[in-house]
Specification:
The complex is a heterodimer of chains A (about 100) and B (about 650).
Chain A lengths: L4 H21 L3 H25 L6 H32 L13
Helix pairs in contact in A: 1-2, 2-3
Chain B lengths: L1 E4 L10 H22 L3 H29 L3 E10 L2 E9 L1 H24 L6 H20 L3 H19 L6 H31 L6 H9 L5 H18 L8 H4 L5 H10 L1 H11 L1 H6 L1 H24 L3 H21 L3 H29 L15 H15 L5 H16 L1 H26 L30 H16 L8 H7 L4 H8 L6 H23 L5 H7 L1 H8 L4 H48 L7 H22 L3
Antiparallel strand pairs in B: 1-2, 2-3
The chains are: A mainly alpha (about 100), B mainly alpha (about 650).
Chain lengths: ~100, ~650
């Protein structure tokens, strides 16, 4: 069996769905953040697969994109964890079910 | 400048400038008063009199020119053009115009002079004279106009001025109501005139010229029903302005205005506008027998209704008002019976003696502070001049030989006799009643014991009555001199009919074939004249027997004819019919209620309904806004999945 583009894409899609499921179902805000990280990495995997297997003139474009995503994801994780800590200080909880301030 | 001479042989040579000056003089007077001297009563009053006086003098210049030359002259200019519609602004001068000009300006001038006495001390006097000037302008414009469009414009202006003047004392609710009533009721008739105007626009290639319309009506190629429709349209306008049945109700209420206004507008000129309009388009009546029968019988009905109500009025001025309604009915009857000359002649004499009578009633009011004849009596000692002028006016109105009214009324009766005996019977009956109610009024006002008048109410700020009603006095010079001057034509205007002078003057205004036909008829018949004199004498004697000698008690007569007097005293229930049935029931309970329901359920329903739908929908949708980010995320994810599935379903790979 030759491992081709489809396999990478299926793995990426599965990872994305897992991440989505985690992000939408975890009560703990930290867990939600982890789900989001998983989704980002799934996307990275997809980008890399296309970059590797598609016959595009700029081979390096997809990899550059992934580097940017990793950078932004790191920044996002830092900000999001800081937010989570801040929320915890204010509300003594990081349970997203109780963070329904958007409800008017 | 376009200069048309309809009759090649002869036409009036008076220059166009003079005609425009007649129109402009009172207009300038109006403008000056409104702009500069509204606050100066004396200046405003005499400026108004002078402005109308200039118009009056020029009118006589025109009249003598027309008498000397005869024929018709038209000076017309293009005013504006809009697509196919060409509207001219021009003057037409002929016998009819000249006579009407003289009547309007003479009466207006004397009334302006009189007003200087009567209106003295009224705070709104500047406004009063401005309106009077504007009114005279519009009336002159109406008479001079050479096309129907212009007639319509001035016709409406006359209506406006009438509204302003009837409602002159607008702080009195009754005057404000009367003004509105006059405006609305005449407007119903004006709709007919507008319809006639539009008919001419569509059926006569938009040629509004009087001569063109006359030719259109006489042209055998014109469908008869169109001519009849046009005639009925302008007659509807005339019914409104000239207070004919069934729109006669506004005129008696118009007595709420100052008395000189009543004399000018509601006796001498404005109400004559309707008769003038019908006379102006007399060939149309000639061409449509159906229309002229309608005119004649409406006139007869009006004459009868007016005269019968006048029999039982207790208000001196309202007797005159109903008398005017009745006399206008007679004029219409005359026109319908093809008595063109008779109707215009009666219009002329009536203008003089009726304004004389109205101004006399003003003098009586000036002395007694009331118009109620039950509070008067015995004024012959204190007010000899007014008595004499009033008796002259009444004799003339009653049609006693040889006063002016006799000759004109006799001609109408003769034309009625020739056309239809039924019309003659009505007209004669009306003449007898006219004589009766006028002398009833005179005996009640000037003879017997004085009953004290209406005491002055010093708390009434609107009243500007000077003097003491308990001791009545003759009116000042400016107020009795116009009466004396008006008495002269009221006595002697019959002389114009001598040797067919008047007839020849005004028939020149008509197309030749009709003019020749009228000229061939005799205008006097001994039988008719004697009968009409007998009716007049009978009426006067009856009034003398009941109200002077008191051989019969008026009360018992009144009881004897109880259903009839009830009918007359309630004005044949016309006011009740209009007020209770049309206004209250049809308009207020019917139409207005319909509009109210529409507003309440349809308009409000749409507004409230959309609000309710939005509110209910949002109630149902509220639960999805939980504030849970994860819920929203799930929604977004589900949406993406739905979109992807939809795209794939629409475009299978």
């Amino acid at each position: 069996m030759t491992v081709g583009l489809e396999h990478f894409l299926v793995v990426g899609a599965l990872l994305f769905c897992l991440g989505l499921a985690v992000a939408l179902s975890k009560r703990n805000a930290i867990g939600v953040l982890m789900g989001i990280e998983l989704m980002l990495n799934a996307v990275n995997l997809t980008l890399l697969s296309f970059s590797r297997f598609q016959d595009t003139p700029h081979k390096v474009a997809g990899q550059t994109f992934v580097v940017f995503v990793i950078t932004v994801a790191a920044a996002e994780a830092a900000v999001a964890l800081a937010l989570a800590v801040s929320v915890y200080r204010n509300r003594q909880t990081v349970d997203v079910d109780q963070l329904n301030l958007l409800k008017s | 400048m376009l200069h048309l001479a309809t009759e090649a042989a002869a036409h009036p040579t008076v220059s166009e400038g003079v005609l425009w000056a007649i129109l402009a003089a009172p207009f300038v007077g109006w403008a000056l008063i409104v702009l500069y001297v509204r606050k100066l009563p004396l200046v405003a009053g005499w400026l108004a009199a002078a402005a109308v006086g200039v118009a009056c003098v020029l009118s006589y210049v025109v009249l003598f020119n027309v008498i000397a030359k005869g024929g018709i002259a038209v000076h017309t200019h293009e005013w504006f053009r809009a697509g196919d519609l060409v509207v001219n602004f021009g003057v037409r001068i002929d016998g009819l115009t000249a006579v009407m000009l003289c009547v309007v300006t003479s009466v207006a001038f004397l009334v302006q002079v009189y007003s200087n006495g009567y209106m003295k001390g009224d705070p709104g006097i500047g406004r009063y004279f401005a309106h009077m000037c504007l009114f005279t302008t519009s009336m002159i414009g109406l008479v001079l106009a050479d096309n129907l469009f212009m007639i319509f414009i001035f016709w409406e202006l006359v209506g406006l001025c009438s509204y302003l003047l009837i409602g002159f004392w607008f702080h009195k609710p009754s005057a404000a109501a009367a003004a509105k009533k006059a405006f609305i009721v005449t407007r119903i008739g004006d709709l007919g005139l507008l319809a006639a105007l539009l008919l001419i626009y569509t059926r006569n290639d938009g040629n509004f010229d009087v001569s063109a319309i006359q030719a259109w009506a006489l042209n055998s190629g014109t469908p008869g029903y169109l001519v009849t429709l046009f005639a009925l349209g302008i007659f509807a306008g005339a019914v409104g302005k000239s207070a004919q049945f069934p729109l006669q109700v506004w005129l008696p209420d118009a007595m709420e205005g100052p008395t000189p206004v009543s004399a000018l507008i509601h006796a001498a000129t404005m109400v004559a506008a309707g008769v003038y309009l019908m006379a102006r388009f007399f060939p149309v009546l000639e061409a449509s027998p159906d229309a002229r029968h309608v005119v004649a019988w409406i006139g007869a009905a009006t004459a009868l209704i007016g005269a019968t109500i006048a029999l039982v009025q207790t208000d001196f001025k309202r007797v005159m008002a109903y008398s005017t309604v009745s006399q206008l009915g007679l004029m219409m009857l005359g026109l319908g019976a093809l008595g063109y000359v008779a109707a215009i002649f009666h219009l002329l004499t009536h203008a003089f003696f009726k304004s004389l009578l109205f101004l006399s009633s003003g003098n009586v009011n000036h002395a007694t502070n009331t118009f109620d004849m039950r509070l008067m009596g015995g004024l012959r000692k204190q007010m000899p001049i007014t008595l004499v002028t009033c008796v002259i006016g009444s004799l003339s109105l009653a049609g006693v030989v040889p006063l002016a009214g006799f000759w004109s009324k006799d001609e109408i009766l003769l034309d009625a006799w020739r056309d239809n005996r039924g019309l003659w019977v009505v007209a004669s009956l009306v003449s007898a009643m006219t004589a009766f109610y006028m002398f009833r009024a005179i005996f009640l006002v000037f003879f017997g014991e004085y009953k004290g008048g209406q005491p002055v109410d010093h708390h009434d700020e609107d009243s500007h009555f000077h003097g003491d009603p308990a001791h009545p006095h003759e009116a000042p010079l400016v107020m009795w001199l116009p009466l004396v001057i008006l008495a002269v034509p009221a006595i002697g205007a019959g002389i114009f009919a001598l040797n067919h002078g008047f007839r020849n003057l005004i028939v020149d205004a008509l197309p030749l074939e009709i003019a020749d036909q009228i000229k061939s008829e005799s205008s006097f018949k001994w039988g008719v004249a004697i009968a009409s004199s007998a009716f007049a004498a009978g009426g006067i004697l009856l009034a003398w027997a009941i109200y002077y000698k008191q051989w019969f008690s008026s009360r018992s007569i009144r009881m004897g004819f109880a259903p009839l007097t009830n009918l007359f005293e309630n004005k044949w229930f016309f006011d009740r019919l209009y007020e209770d049935f049309f206004v209250k029931l049809v308009l207020q309970r019917g139409w207005n209620r319909l509009l109210e329901l529409n507003d309440k359920y349809v308009v409000d329903g749409v507004v409230n309904g959309s609000a309710r739908v939005a509110s209910m929908a949002s109630d149902r949708l509220r639960f999805i806004q939980s504030g849970q980010i994860q819920g929203y995320g799930l929604g977004i994810a589900a949406g993406v999945v739905a979109v992807v599935i939809a795209v794939y379903a629409a475009n299978p790979l």
